[in-house]
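Project standup — Tuesday

K.O.: blocked on the structure for the chain from last sprint. Re-posting the sequence here as requested.
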Amino acid sequence: MVNTPEELGAWLRLVLTPGVGPESARRLLAAFGEPQALFAQTETALCQVVNAKQAQALRIMPDGCVDLIQNTLDWLQTANGPGRCVITLGDADYPAPLLDIPDPPLMLYALGQTAQLATLRAEQALAMVGSRNPTPQGAENARAFAFGLAASGLTVVSGLALGVDGAAHEGALQGATKGQLATIAVVGTGLDRVYPRQHRELAHRIAQNGLILSEYPLGTPPLSPNFPRRNRLISGLSQATLVVEAAVQSGSLITAKQALEQGRDVLAIPGSIHSAQSKGCHALIKQGAKLVETVQDVLEELQLPTPDVQQALDLPAPPPEDEPSGHDPERALLRAMGHDPVGLDALQVRCGWPTAQLQAQLLELELMGQVGRLPGGLFQRMGSA
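H.V.: unblocked you, prediction finished:
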């Protein structure tokens, strides 16, 4: 971890130098060691590793660097709340799984259970990603799978986005035991801000029972290019990536692609053939991703060495469904709905009920959490993962 203002200043100066990207920075570090030694070199020496323009830029303090150094020191020295630290490439506490990816970040900012950084292992973590606008069933699947995986001792890694990410973090926090690293949120902003704002309270809970990580300096706003880039860290920290629900043009598929490039496994939950939010998962399955329907499927694919834990996580089978009966209108309506999204007109044809009765029964099932309302006037039956 960064221990002195001089050390922090040298690292920030390297990261912020215009025209010197991560690849060039790693070459410089390999040649000269720590950034403080690098900045003591002559321009001629630097030109042996980088081009002349980059060497000239390295001789000048970047704009805003001095203020950023002070802001970062103030942030690190905050006495109250969860742990805070800045880790640099080569530190003993640097997460080992990220050393195996092609483009490990030069600096990592961490908030939360920072003492567990040094012991992070990919085989102890699973990434969960998916749509920012999931169906009700998709959100419930994310929460339920994360709950079961955390209860098995795994750390759930995601991106703190709306939708599937948030549901995955919530489920992991609920399923983890006391003292366990429940979840890791990898964000695309500086750690002095929470994005999206709706997840401010969730972020505080993650910091208490997990970790929030970022490679971006404090003050970094939510810039669009940062989010696809941070996805490589979500997959890189994990032994596998589970895609819960995703459209064909989805950022979640970027994470899945990066997982494959990193040699990690990709798993996907199938959905309705009529749902646009399932088509990305179906495309992944066609390309060889492991189809999973239960938490047990995930655990078996990951080959956890604890069959007793796997057995304890078996989810009970749903009760058998009887044929529709006038004496059990709730069961009759659920049976008529099936498991695909369906509109009111189609349901009325199947049930033969008056509109008012059908709407009242749907509302009751919705309040009970058994039916979800989708855009376009569609309804979908909810089930457990």
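K.O.: great, moving the ticket to review. The chain has three domains: 1-66, 115-312, 329-381. The first strand starts at residue 83 and ends at 88.
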